[in-house]
Amino acid sequence: MEKLDHDTEESKKESPPEAGVLHTVRTKVFEQRGLLAAFLASLCFALQTVWVKLMKDAMPVVEVVCIRFALQGMFSLMFGMFTKMSILPDSKREMALLAARGSLGTIAIGLIYFAVYNMSAGLVNTIVFGAPVFVGILAWIFLKERFYCCDAILMAVDILGIVLIAQPPFLFSSESWSDSKKMELFGAIAAFCAMLLAASTAILIRLMGLMGTSAIKIVFYYSIIGTLLPVIIGIIMGDWVLPQCGTMRFLLVGIGFMNFAAQSLSRMRLLSPSSHTSPQL
């Protein structure tokens, strides 16, 4: 016994101090995994927004949205099959929430891509990622979360910032009603509507998180609805083109993969019991 105690004490003395530091770092990262997932998701969303901007003169918005969701659905289905995860809804209420999340999210993505086509991608992201302010009101109404006075102040500041970004000519006399200005104004309105829809989808995802719905299941049904709706709209409009070989097709695959990664990361964060409600598309 004395020999064993002696060996244990020697092993403790011989253990390098870096081991304790690495253990502390791993513990801190695990505790803040929600924040890390949100950061990585935002990075993926930013990359796909830039790539969508590069597709402006090559393909219509409806087709980009359709291919984006088709690839995202393929990646989610492959992941679900690899992990043997069930993708069937557990109840009618869950199916209704999945359908509502998919419909609102698809419309929001279409509006965002339209805005990116007609104004700066950075300004579009600035508007859309102001959605957490509006999530506070919806969370207060539907999830019974607290809504503070500072949230109302932030909402007013956010709306003021959107007005300053759009600079409508009826408020800014220095601006003229040129065609480019009209399209930029329409893009700002589309981004604002997308922000409201993003706030609504965050509440739906949080409700499904309370029900125990997996992140992959949410992404999969979101992808199915996001593929079917643009197909119907594209057939009605007759606005379809074949993607060019080379760079354009690689960009489309990259957009689909980045969205799958961003969706999975953001859902993991929102479904975490300790997470704060925030929107991701």
From TrEMBL:
Membrane topology of this protein: Multi-pass membrane protein
Residue ranges constituting the EamA domain according to the UniProt record: 33-166
InterPro entries: EamA_dom (IPR000620), EmrE-like (IPR037185)
Keyword Transmembrane: yes
Segments traversing the membrane: 34-52, 58-83, 95-116, 122-143, 152-173, 185-207, 219-242
Gene Ontology, cellular component aspect: membrane
Keywords linked to the UniProt accession: Membrane, Transmembrane, Transmembrane helix
Subcellular locations according to the entry: Membrane
SUPFAM superfamilies the UniProt entry points to: Multidrug resistance efflux transporter EmrE
Primary residence: membrane
Protein name: Solute carrier family 35 member G1
Organism: Holothuria leucospilota (Black long sea cucumber)
